[in-house]
Amino acid sequence: MQARYLTIKDFVTDQIERGIWEPSEKIYSENELAVKFSVSRMTARKAIDSLCSEGVLVRSQGLGTFVADLRPMSSLLEIRNIADEIASRGHQYSGQVIDVRSVIPDKSLARLLDVPVDSAVYHSCLVHRENDIAVQYEDRYINPKFAPDYLQQNFLDQTPNAYLSKVAPLTEADHVVEAVLPDDNIVSALNSNFPCLKITRRTWCKRGIVSVAYLYHPGDKYRLGGHLTF
Amino acid sequence: MQARYLTIKDFVTDQIERGIWEPSEKIYSENELAVKFSVSRMTARKAIDSLCSEGVLVRSQGLGTFVADLRPMSSLLEIRNIADEIASRGHQYSGQVIDVRSVIPDKSLARLLDVPVDSAVYHSCLVHRENDIAVQYEDRYINPKFAPDYLQQNFLDQTPNAYLSKVAPLTEADHVVEAVLPDDNIVSALNSNFPCLKITRRTWCKRGIVSVAYLYHPGDKYRLGGHLTF
DNA sequence: CAGTGGTCTAGACCACTGG
DNA sequence: CAGTGGTCTAGACCACTGG
Q: CB contact, 8 Å: B98 with chain A?
């Protein structure tokens, strides 16, 4: 015998999968669900709680419960500001700005950023250090539309990631993780010729693709931890 | 005025951060928390619910609530069966079994697997191929308690991951992703001396740690995709 | 204003674990 | 067996939203 809140959860999931409730559409209220399934409101709430924490539903006090807009494709990688991550380990963060300017993207980058081929985009290149040891080489391209003042920022005060999170709040991201041999620029910037863990990350705000970042981590000094519960 | 369950949540988080409650240690029961904070059990539960879904606590019916063993450093990675993943790309999967036998783990592996130092564990070593090109070297150690018939399986029919999912359903996992240079065994098995993406993955079933797997992917042939929504 | 979700109570019965 | 977490009830009052 299945728990009642699971029955409700299945029902809601089913409605969404069948397309009866579409993204951003309002679903039944907690009271309606409680009446429909003859349970207490707390039980109906529990089903919704669970779907909210899975990112399937979104609640809004006074308004109702809605089907979430953007569906996660598959796997999840949390995005943390590297300065915070280093600080949370009790270590000292320092940054070094290598380059900040406007560039014309090549075809493939323009496509990745979803901008016209001949229009300028912003570019920044930094090295992030933990206790003075380089742990990340960050090569990033930004769609100017979402961060027009990007070139005027001081990225020693605030990482590009932190700044972009403020002006164009993240709604979505995707990642590719690879092992690569670093090229000469990266070897000298990181002061290591170890194989690198390369993360290619695209970030979205509500209105489009904000930036594409190539993040290189010396394989001997950086680990990308993960944890997952089913 | 803060909600009462948040006060309890702060208290628990604080205890853990101060090291008063250590990983895998039992925390106060729901009833004890309810009494201590003069709230109903449902409210104490809500605080714990929230910390469980964040991966900070783990509950076990009949036993209690415990501080999670491995703290998620940051990110989440979905676990897919490599044979399915290859098939889903429309490519041909083939496996090669290099070694399947019982071994005595060293201290560090015994600790990772949560078994006594001198007790045998199972070991398997395979190479996975996509259209006859090696894409993963899988070096895996298994707690025999959860898969006693492991050594009798034919891993050409069914990957270790698929078999374990059946006999000891996954409830949890953690990952470390690194870039490394492959050693000689791996170079010859993968037929490539490219830097490797190494994933160290531990998997749990309800009753404990099932296996520790070291997965090596040639950096030029494998990508670990990810996608995320906020 | 009526309706929504957010929090909370003081009970209840259950399944599960260890001793 | 006593203790644990898992589910559930039938109420309550609150803050917030729109009309």
A: no
| Residue of A40, A224, A230 to mutate when probing chain B, most B C-beta within 10 A | A224
pLDDT digits (tens, 9 = 90+) for B9-45: 999 988 987 889 988 899 999 999 999 999 999 999 9
Q: What is the pLDDT of residues A49-108, one digit of tens each?
A: 998 877 678 898 999 999 876 443 223 345 667 887 777 666 789 999 999 999 999 888
Three-class secondary structure of residue B160 per DSSP: helix
Q: Residue B97 burial (CB < 10 Å; 0-12/13-18/19+)?
A: middle
Contact B110, B175 (CB under 8 A): no
Residues of A in contact with B175 (CB under 8 A): 224-228
Cβ contact B206 with chain D strand, < 7 A: no
A196 chain-B contacts, CB cut-off 8 A: 179, 195
Non-local CB neighbours of B154 within 8 Å, separated by 6+ positions: none
Delineate the domains of chain A, giving CATH numbers in brackets.
4-67 (1.10.10.10), 82-218 (3.40.1410.10)
